[in-house]
Amino acid sequence: MWSIAIDEPKPFELLSPRTLDEALELASRHGVDAAFLAGGCDLIDQLKHQWSTPHYVINLKTIPGLRYVEPGSQAIRMGALSTLAELERNREIRSALPGLARAAARVATPQIRNLGTLGGNLLQDSRCPYYRGPWYCYRHGGIVCDARHGVNAEHAIFGGNRCYTVTPSDTAPMLVALDARVTIAGRDGPREMPLAEMFVGPEENILVMHRLRPNEILASVTVPRRPDQRSTFIKYAMRGSWDFALASVAVAFTAGGGYCRDARIVLGGVAPVPWRSAAAEREIEGRPLTATNIESAARAAIAGAEPLAHNEYKLGLVKKLVRAALTELAS
């Protein structure tokens, strides 16, 4: 019998490793009976509602060296335990990667940004109320997406396949637009991949939202520096703070000679993964940001969208956000 009033976790043992290797060994030893704790903004909620019931919680905050912002001449590297507030306030990030600073600043509330980590924001699980409520949906191993035929105003208009959840991360679309890479620690050594490839859509695996293998840890995120790069992030939510995005847009490109180069337009809150709009990018790539080209990109950004019964409004919202972001960067 499901209960929707649970507000107390089942007993668990808190483990406090001092190194990454020790954390990985503990995770390997306890397997599915363990969970990693970073900032705790997602995991503690899951524990309190007993959506997750591990017997062991491995506290990553006791490991030195996972919380830093390291500016370099070619790239800026950030530890996965860097807090969102630190990214929001960091002078180097505000100067070189203003879109990332803005994305971090739009997450939830100041209290949550003081605790929430970059890694946690990227790896948080689906926030779909059907998935987190007393339903047995596809993502829970059931045979139906309750949102598909239920209340779906906040759900996907792109990439829905058996599951219409959306990526809840604000930093993910911006970091994909900035061509970030991630370093993942595991028992067999570290591995790297483009951040965009870390996310998994429901057509590939409906049970997870990222490619981290069991017992792996997201260690760092690296963003390349590009001369003359411009970036921004705009999010629309019902409330100015706390709420997850109904839609967001991240834009990054190199400005040279009055033209856009290496343009990336990535949408959030509208797909199970950060949704890169190649059609919108083509409308500005190698072109100046004129009003005509901006409008063409805004219209192209909704190409291929398949809204559900209650979220068709996202079509107009996406166009508005893309138009606003490009207009801002054109000035």
Task: Tell me about this structure.
This protein is 29% helix and 20% strand. It is of the alpha+beta class. The protein folds into 2 domains: 10-63, Uridine Diphospho-n-acetylenolpyruvylglucosamine Reductase, domain 2, CATH 3.30.43; 69-124 and 165-330, Uridine Diphospho-n-acetylenolpyruvylglucosamine Reductase, domain 3, CATH 3.30.465.10. The protein has a 5-stranded antiparallel β-sheet. Strands 9-10-11-12 form a 4-stranded antiparallel β-sheet, sandwiched between helices. α11 (291-300) packs antiparallel against α12. It is globular. It starts with 12 loop residues before the first strand and ends with a helix.
Key structural traits:
Uridine Diphospho-n-acetylenolpyruvylglucosamine Reductase, domain 3; five-stranded antiparallel sheet; Uridine Diphospho-n-acetylenolpyruvylglucosamine Reductase, domain 2; single chain; four-stranded antiparallel sheet; alpha+beta; 331 residues
Shape: globular
Distance between the termini: 57 Å
Question: What is the strand tally?
Answer: 12
Query: What is the radius of gyration?
Result: 20 Å
Question: Would you spell out the secondary-structure blueprint of this structure?
Answer:
Blueprint: E1 13-15, H1 20-30, E2 34-37, H2 43-48, E3 56-59, E4 69-71, E5 75-79, H3 84-89, H4 91-96, H5 98-105, H6 110-115, H7 118-123, H8 171-177, E6 181-185, E7 191-194, H9 195-198, E8 217-224, E9 229-236, E10 247-256, E11 259-268, E12 275-276, H10 278-284, H11 291-300, H12 313-330
Parallel strand pairs: 1-3, 2-3
Antiparallel strand pairs: 4-5, 5-8, 6-7, 6-8, 9-10, 10-11, 11-12
Helix pairs in contact: 10-11, 11-12
